[in-house]
Amino acid sequence: MLSEPDSKEAQSTVASYLKKGFALYTVDLALIEGLNVIWKHAALLKDIRLEEINSAVEDLTIVYDGLNIVPARELTTESVQIALKHNLSIYDALYIAASEKINGTLYTADQKLCNIAKKVTKGVRTPSTEADSEP
After folding, report:
1. DSSP label at 13?
2. Label partner for 128 (CA 20 to 30 A): which of 12, 48, 105, 112?
3. DSSP assignment of 53-79, as one string?
4. Tens-digit pLDDT profile for residues 61-75
5. How many CB atoms are closer than 10 A to CB 19?
6. Using only C-alpha atoms, what is the Rg of the chain?
7. CA of 76: how far to CAs of 29, 84, 131, in Å?
8. Residue 10, in any domain of the structure
9. Residue 2 falls within a domain, yes or no?
10. Which contiguous run of DSSP H or E holds residue 90?
11. Domain range holding 36?
């Protein structure tokens, strides 16, 4: 896995929720966003060697394959409404719409997304939220 801000806290929280038997969901867009992060680290930041890229992609797909996927197609109307109302990208609005659709908790390290999500949905957590608290 690549190191990003708050990634250790996120990994710990995800592991804790999985041990407690929670189902984890994401939008199908997450795979594309994850691949883009790998590209960014390799091409722009140059903090991952080319030999490590295949391993990073494999790790990402293993994690992604273990998640329940909410197709963006099922969130089109809601995500556009959220994006327009809160001046948010469609990408971020999709995650809020997905958490609403499944009546779940949105977990994000993005403070702007967190602040907006709190206006739209009842369950929002960040890495600074206590890891052992229930989602």
Report:
1. H
2. 48
3. HHHHHHHHHHHHHTSEEE-GGGGHHHH
4. 998 998 999 999 999
5. 8
6. 15
7. 13, 12, 31
8. no
9. no
10. helix 90-101
11. 15-125
